[in-house]
Structures are given as structure tokens and as C-alpha cells.
Amino acid sequence: MASVANVHVCRWNGVNVWREFLGSFKMQIGQRNGVGQGQRYSAKNTVVPVSFMCAAPEAQSVSVIGDFNGWNPTANQMKRHPDGSWQSSFPVHSGHHRYQFLIDGVPHLDPQAQGVVKLDDEAKASLLSVS
């Protein structure tokens, strides 16, 4: 047997063994990214950790609401830091997402957002692009 980057390939049957390895490797990668066996890779199935920061030193509570959590105010509550900033990190699927900071129950745009979009009710939301 020859060894290439910890991949063992039999010289007498290298093509078939290599195909089996590639098939199992693709399946393992797909499972890590939320893709089941027989499904193709899609960037939309990729989950990426995202960190949000909000400066609200006088606030009592801050959370991140958006289409990635069903606009649920309790899904992603932020933690307060001694300097008055608030932070939260959680996984988000790749794609474009609309969100707002909910500061003491009042929605606010993120001044550091990648853009601003209108929601269905004409309210504005911050735009996040995850890839």
C-alpha cells in the first residue's frame, strides 16, 4: 500500500479504493454541514458562528431578533460587559438575513450592519450577509 496524506490507496485497485474514500469523505463533509446522504452540498446548508455587539450602556436587556430565529426576543439574549456593551454569538445559516437589536423592548438598527432593508410592515431592519 502507498500512503498519501494518511489516505491509504492500494496500488492494485487504487481507483476503486480512492472512489470509496472520496464517497465517504463527501458524506462526512455533507453531514457536518447539515446535508444528508444523497444530497448535494449547498451554501445555504452551511452554518457559520456569528458574533453580534451592541453599545447600550443604559439598557437593562438587549437581544438579537431576526429571520434566523423567527423574530423571537428570548432566542438570542445578549450578555452585558462591564463597559456597557452587549454581546451574543450563535450559529447562523449562510445567506442574507434581516435583524434588529431589541433594547429594553424597543427595536433598533445595528449601526455596524452591512446594509438596511425594509420589512413587510415598512419598518427597517439591519442586513447581515453570512457566507
What structural keywords apply?
Immunoglobulin-like; three-stranded antiparallel β-sheet; disordered N terminus; five-stranded antiparallel β-sheet; single chain; 2 domains; globular; 131 residues; mainly beta
Write the layout of secondary structure elements.
Elements: E1 2-4, E2 7-9, H1 14-32, E3 47-55, E4 62-66, E5 79-80, E6 85-93, E7 95-103, E8 106-108, E9 115-118, E10 124-130
Antiparallel strand pairs: 1-2, 3-6, 4-7, 5-6, 7-8, 7-10, 9-10
Describe the structure.
There is one protein chain. The protein is mainly beta and 131 residues long. The protein folds into 2 domains: 2-32, no CATH class; 43-130, Immunoglobulin-like. The protein contains 1 helix and 10 strands. The protein has one helix spanning 14-32; strands at residues 2-4, 7-9, 47-55, 62-66, 79-80, 85-93, 95-103, 106-108, 115-118, 124-130. Strands 4, 7, 8, 9 and 10 form a 5-stranded antiparallel sheet that branches. A hairpin with a 5-residue loop joins β9 and β10. Mean pLDDT is 78; it is low at 1-32.
Content-based structural category? mainly beta
For this structure, what is the CATH class of the largest domain? Mainly Beta
In the CATH hierarchy, the third-tier topology of the largest domain is known as Immunoglobulin-like
> Spans with pLDDT under 50 lasting ≥5 residues?
1-32
Query: Based on CA inertia axes, which overall geometry fits?
Result: globular
The proportion of strand residues reads 35-45%
Q: Count the helices. How many?
A: 1
C-alpha-based Rg, rounded: 22 Å
User: Could you say what the CATH architecture of the largest domain is?
Assistant: Sandwich
Mean of residue pLDDT values:
78
Helicity level, as a percent range? Answer: 10-25%
- Please count the beta strands (DSSP E, at least 2 residues each): 10
Give the biggest beta sheet: 5 strands, antiparallel
Count structural domains.
2
Distance from first to last alpha carbon = 39 Å
SSE series: EEHEEEEEEEE
The CATH H-level homologous superfamily of the largest domain: Immunoglobulins
